[in-house]
Amino acid sequence: MSQSPAELRYVSSHEWVRVEDDGTATVGITNHAQEALGDVVFVELPEVGAQLGAGDEAGVVESVKAASDIYAPIGGEIIAINENLEDNPEVINEDPYGDGWFFKMRLDDATSVDDLLTAEQYDASCDD
Fold it and tell me: Which cofactors (predicted)?
């Protein structure tokens, strides 16, 4: 059983959200997701300025095994992307909760994060 960081929130499509001190949110994929994908070789991220709703497709991550869509776990505007992933997609495998983040958002509704899964709930869903 994987132990997901307790300070993050999660969605069943395997993205995580960290609300930052300034009220913005950082988004990435979980350790469970990167392990299932295998070695990540390419990532396509959304454009800065894009407005996404919760559940909207935000990009694609490709591995040696498969390609998988990335979804916005919450609604908001993309304010930054992790440009380091363009040349170093393997960082997603090495540090999915740190340097392997995908994008940052300005949230439409900061309370929407409260509706996402806790680490305990997410880990339990992965064990099913």
Answer: (R)-lipoate
Q: Is 64 exposed, middle or buried (0-12, 13-18, 19+ CB in 10 A)?
A: exposed
Single pTM value for the model: 0.95
DSSP-derived pairing of the beta strands 67-71 and 103-107: unpaired
Q: Which fold has domain 9-111?
A: OB fold (Dihydrolipoamide Acetyltransferase, E2P) (2.40.50)
Nearest to 99 by CA among 114, 85, 117: 85
pLDDT digits (tens, 9 = 90+) for 11-59: 999 999 999 999 999 999 999 999 999 999 999 999 999 999 999 999 9
Per-domain boundaries in the chain: 9-111
Strands 9-10 and 15-19: antiparallel
What is the token pair recorded at 101?
């983040």
> What's phi and psi for 14, nearest 5 deg?
80, 25
Count of helix runs (H) and strand runs (E) in the chain: 4, 9
CB 125 within 8 A of CB 117: yes
Find the farthest-apart pair of alpha carbons in the chain and give their distance in angstroms, rounded. 37
